[in-house]
C-alpha cells in the first residue's frame, strides 16, 4: 500500500459496535466511520480504515455503539418551560384549563428563545440530532436551531383563533409563507405548515394550507385522532371522522404527517395507506393524557411509514427519545397482543430512517451509509446497570436511557463530546430557566 492510495479525511470514529440501520437488522463490530466535511465518507472495518484513510482526528469509542442521530418527529420545544406544570389531566382539560391560559400569559419571543434552547439541550444530550417543532414564533425557533447547528422541521402554527403570534388564519398563513420563503432549501431548517388539529382549524384555512404546501413543497403536520372524544365529536357535529374530512380537503398525501392517530378504523388505515400519509407516534404523551394508543405494528404491516415523537415536555414529561423508543416497543406488543411486535431493530428504524422518510430526506439522513450527512451519535454501554451486553440493539431499546449518549455530530460538527454540550452554555441557560420558573410559580400562587 503506497501513501498515495491513502485518502485524507476529517474525523475517524472507532466504534466497538455499529448499528447502521441500513442494511436493516444488522450489528457490526470494530467499525470505523470516516467523516469528510458534512458527510460520511465511509463505514468500514477498522483494519481496512488503517490502510485507506488518514484523518486529522480520531475518536476512540471502545465501549460504545455508534448509530445515526435520532429524529424526534413531533414536539413543542418551548413547552419545556411548562414541564410538570399541569399533570394527571385528560387532553382537553389540560389544554383548555391550564396550557392555553398559560401560553396566553407567558409566551413572548424571549420565552420561546429560552424554552427552545432548554429543549434543544435535552434533545442533543439524549441523542436527537433532528427535531420537528410546532409552536409560536417559529421564526425564532428556526434561527435558534440553525445557530446551534441542529436540524429541524419548523411547522408554523395555523389556528382559527388569535394567539400571541397572529390575529387569525390570514396572518398565520402570510407569516408562515414568509417563513417558508426565508428557509426554503436550507440544509438544517425545513419550514413546514402546522395546522393545529381538525377541531381548531376550519375548512377554509385547511384548504389554503394544502395550496401553500403544493406551491412550495412544504410539509404539513397536524394533530389527528388524538382521542376518542375528538373522533366522536366530529362525527356528531360534521357527520364524518376527522381523517375523512381531511381526505376530502386534500390534506392527506406523502407530504403530510399525522400526529397521534390513537383511534384508527380499517377505513382510516386504507386512507393513510392509499395516500402515502406518514404517522407520527407519541406513545408517552398518549399514555400520560390517557388519550389512547396508536396500533404501531398494524400500521407498519400495511406499509404506512411510522415515525416517532415525544410531543412537548408538558405532556410527556421529557424529550428523551430513547425513553420514547422503549415505551413504543413495549406498548406495541400489548396493543398487537404479540411479543414480536415492534422489535428492537424496528424500533430503532422508526426513530431514525422512518423520521427521515417523513421529512422526505431518506436519501440524506437516517442511516450510516457513505454519502449521507454525518448525523451520528454514540451510546456508552459500559454502565454496570446494562451489563452484560449480548445484543447492543436490545440494550439500546430495552435497557438504555438517553443519558448514556456521550457523543453526537450533526453535519460532521461535534455537538456532544464526552457527555457535554459543545454549543449551548448550560449554566447561563439554567439562570434564564430559573427566572421563568420563578415567574410561573408566582403566577400560580396568585
Ligand atoms: C399551534 S401551536 C401548538 C399548540 O398545540 C398545543 N399542544 C401541545 N400538545 C398538544 C397535544 O398533545 N394535542 C393538542 N395540542 C397540543 C400547544 O399547547 C400549542 O397551543
Ligand atoms: Zn403535540
Task: Note the topology.
Layout: E1 7-18, E2 28-36, E3 39-45, H1 46-52, E4 53-68, E5 70-72, H2 91-106, H3 109-125, E6 128-134, H4 138-148, E7 151-158, H5 169-183, E8 189-195, H6 203-216, E9 219-224, H7 228-238, H8 242-248, E10 256-260, H9 266-275, E11 278-281, H10 283-288, H11 296-301, E12 306-308, H12 321-336, H13 344-350, H14 353-358, E13 376-380, H15 392-399, E14 405-410, E15 413-417, E16 420-421, H16 426-445
Parallel strand pairs: 1-4, 5-6, 6-7, 7-8, 8-9, 9-10, 10-11, 11-12
Antiparallel strand pairs: 1-2, 2-3, 4-13, 13-14, 14-15, 15-16
Helix pairs in contact: 3-4, 3-16, 5-6, 12-13, 12-15, 13-15
Mean pLDDT: 97
Shape: globular
Supply the number of structural domains: 2
Which cofactors or ions or other ligands sit in this model?
A: ligand LTUXU72L, zinc ion
- State the major sheet: 8 strands, mixed
Physical arrangement of strands within the biggest beta sheet: 3-2-1-4-13-14-15-16
Helix content estimate: 25-40%
Q: What class would the helix/strand composition place it in?
A: alpha/beta
**Number of strand elements:** 16
| Count of runs of 4 or more consecutive helical residues | 16
Low-confidence stretches: none
Strand content: 15-25%
User: Distance N terminus to C terminus?
Assistant: 75 Å
Radius of gyration: 22 Å
What is the CATH topology classification name of the largest domain?
TIM Barrel
- CATH architectural designation of the largest domain: Alpha-Beta Barrel
CATH class value of the largest domain: Alpha Beta
Assembly status: single chain
**What is the CATH superfamily classification of the largest domain?**
Metal-dependent hydrolases
Pfam family, one: Amidohydro_1
GO molecular function: 5'-methylthioadenosine deaminase activity; metal ion binding; S-adenosylhomocysteine deaminase activity
EC number: 3.5.4.28, 3.5.4.31
Binding site for substrate: 103, 196, 226, 311
Amino acid at each position: 500500500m503506497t501513501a498515495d492510495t491513502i485518502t485524507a479525511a476529517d474525523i475517524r470514529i472507532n466504534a466497538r459496535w455499529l448499528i447502521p440501520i441500513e442494511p436493516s437488522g444488522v450489528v457490526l463490530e470494530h467499525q470505523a466511520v470516516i467523516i469528510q466535511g458534512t458527510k460520511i465518507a465511509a463505514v468500514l472495518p477498522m483494519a481496512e480504515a488503517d490502510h485507506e484513510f488518514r484523518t486529522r482526528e480520531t475518536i476512540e469509542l471502545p465501549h460504545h455503539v455508534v448509530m445515526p442521530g435520532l429524529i424526534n418527529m413531533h414536539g413543542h420545544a418551548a413547552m419545556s418551560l411548562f414541564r410538570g406544570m399541569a399533570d394527571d389531566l385528560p387532553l382537553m382539560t389540560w389544554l383548555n384549563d391550564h396550557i392555553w391560559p398559560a401560553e396566553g400569559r407567558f409566551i413572548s419571543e424571549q420565552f420561546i428563545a429560552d424554552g427552545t434552547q432548554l429543549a434543544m439541550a435535552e434533545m442533543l444530550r439524549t441523542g436527537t440530532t433532528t427535531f420537528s417543532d410546532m409552536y409560536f414564533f417559529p421564526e425564532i425557533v428556526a434561527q435558534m436551531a440553525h445557530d446551534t447547528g441542529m436540524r429541524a422541521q419548523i411547522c408554523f402554527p395555523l389556528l382559527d383563533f388569535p394567539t400571541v403570534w397572529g390575529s387569525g388564519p390570514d396572518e398565520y398563513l402570510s407569516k408562515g409563507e414568509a417563513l417558508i420563503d426565508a428557509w426554503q432549501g436550507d440544509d438544517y431548517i425545513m419550514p413546514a405548515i402546522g395546522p393545529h388539529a381538525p377541531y381548531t382549524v376550519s375548512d377554509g384555512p385547511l384548504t389554503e394550507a394544502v395550496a401553500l404546501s403544493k406551491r412550495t413543497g412544504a410539509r404539513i403536520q397536524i394533530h389527528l385522532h388524538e382521542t376518542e372524544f375528538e373522533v366522536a365529536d366530529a362525527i356528531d357535529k360534521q357527520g364524518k371522522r376527522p381523517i375523512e374530512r381531511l381526505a376530502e380537503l386534500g390534506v392527506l398525501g406523502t407530504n403530510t404527517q399525522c400526529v397521534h392517530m390513537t383511534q384508527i378504523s380499517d377505513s382510516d388505515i386504507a386512507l393513510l395507506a392509499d395516500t402515502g400519509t406518514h404517522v407520527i407516534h407519541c406513545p408517552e404523551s398518549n399514555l400520560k393524557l390517557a388519550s389512547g394508543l396508536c396500533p404501531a405494528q398494524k400500521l407498519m404491516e400495511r406499509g404506512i411509514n411510522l415515525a416517532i415523537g415525544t410531543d412537548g415536555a408538558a405532556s410527556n414529561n421529557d424529550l428523551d427519545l430513547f425513553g420514547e423508543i422503549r415505551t413504543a416497543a413495549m406498548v406495541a406488543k400489548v396493543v398487537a397482543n404479540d411479543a414480536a411486535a415492534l422489535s428492537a431493530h424496528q424500533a430503532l428504524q422508526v426513530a431514525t430512517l422512518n423520521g427521515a422518510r417523513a421529512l422526505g430526506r431518506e436519501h440524506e439522513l437516517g442511516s450510516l451509509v457513505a454519502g449521507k450527512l454525518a448525523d451520528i451519535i454514540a451510546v456508552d454501554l459500559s454502565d454496570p446497570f446494562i451489563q452484560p451486553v449480548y445484543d447492543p440493539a436490545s440494550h439500546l431499546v430495552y435497557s438504555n436511557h438517553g443519558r448514556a449518549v456521550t457523543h453526537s455530530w450533526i453535519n460532521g460538527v461535534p455537538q456532544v463530546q464526552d457527555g457535554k454540550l459543545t454549543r449551548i452554555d448550560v449554566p447561563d441557560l439554567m439562570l434564564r430557566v430559573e427566572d421563568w420558573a420563578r415567574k410561573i410559580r408566582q403566577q400560580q400562587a396568585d
